[in-house]
């Protein structure tokens, strides 16, 4: 004699409801964008000598365009013997842009950049 009734139908029904809720949760989570990791980088760009046009150097550096790269403020910092280096700030998305790529792109301007 089954005094409390059959639980099999409720278990199957509860499992279906649970699976449906899990599926809806997974869909909702898939639509939500993930966290984008960003880094703020301060670059020091050293010219060849004291006769290098620093305005042109800055224009060349800022001409580098990549998805996930945003140039910020810059300033000229004295190094010594009349030579000034360009300090420039940028914000990058870690997944899209790395420091190696930036360094490689900046050093391509061989007429202006020493390191």
TrEMBL record:
Keywords: Elongation factor, Protein biosynthesis. Residues 3-29 form the Elongation factor 1 beta central acidic region eukaryote domain. Gene3D superfamilies: 3.30.70.60. The keyword Protein biosynthesis applies. Pfam families: EF-1_beta_acid, EF1_GNE. SMART domains: EF-1_beta_acid, EF1_GNE. GO terms for molecular function: guanyl-nucleotide exchange factor activity; translation elongation factor activity. Residues 38-114 form the Translation elongation factor EF1B beta/delta subunit guanine nucleotide exchange domain. Belongs to the EF-1-beta/EF-1-delta family. This is EF1D factor. It comes from Tyrannus savana (Fork-tailed flycatcher). The gene is Eef1d.
